[in-house]
Design goal:
Elements (H helix, E strand, L loop, with lengths): L2 H19 L2 E2 L8 E2 L3 H11 L1 H19 L7 H23 L3 H35 L8 H39 L1
Antiparallel strand pairs: 1-2
Helix pairs in contact: 1-2, 1-3, 2-3, 2-4, 2-6, 3-4, 4-5, 5-6
Length: about 180
């Protein structure tokens, strides 16, 4: 990575961290599920600089958030979950968009990213994340919430993030393609 990429990843990580602070719950869902738009800068980083840049943005925003806000468990279980959810959203989106570089391709890529994130995070929540909260915080077993709450929440979160990203992408597509083309030359 060159200096421009490193600086850009740092800036996008900072923006992602700030967006992560602006989280909010959605009505009808458990109060521990929050939506934020911090995956959008990570997706932009992945599209411009490659998948490792997107992963780094996801990593740095979560590390910053953990050190600044802490964790109820003392262990960053929620931050690890957020990191995994972000990666599961941006990587499939990036990989499919690289094959179909159109607006329709991006729509399909975002759909794939949303479904991948929702399904795999449901599995991870059932087997690892929710049992970790049960063990560390002595919560009751919450795995019964995976299908009625966590899966629909992640689908809705993906749809909302995808919609906002598409509004940005329509304006930025030519610029992203230009930067990516110049970078690859």
């Amino acid at each position: 990575m060159n200096a421009k990429a490193i600086v850009s990843i740092g800036m996008l990580s900072s923006i992602a961290y700030l967006l992560m602070l602006l989280n909010f719950p959605l009505p009808l869902f458990p109060n521990f599920l929050f939506i934020d738009f911090s995956d959008i800068p990570a997706l932009i980083a992945a599209l411009i600089f490659g998948p490792m840049a997107g992963i780094l943005v996801e990593f740095f925003k979560n590390v910053l958030n953990y050190f600044m806000t802490g964790s109820q468990t003392g262990i960053p279980v929620g931050h690890i979950a957020n990191f995994l959810a972000g990666i599961l959203f941006i990587l499939p989106t990036y990989l499919l968009y690289k094959k179909l570089k159109t607006k329709k391709g991006m729509t399909l890529a975002l759909t794939l990213g949303t479904l991948t994130m929702a399904v795999i995070m449901s599995i991870l929540n059932y087997y690892f994340i929710l049992p970790a909260y049960t063990s560390l915080l002595k919560f009751p077993d919450m795995r019964n919430l995976v299908v009625p709450a966590i899966l629909p929440f992640n689908i809705l979160k993906g749809v909302i993030m995808s919609s906002i990203f598409m509004l940005l992408f329509i304006r930025m597509q030519a610029w992203i393609n230009k930067i990516t083309f110049v970078k690859n030359v």
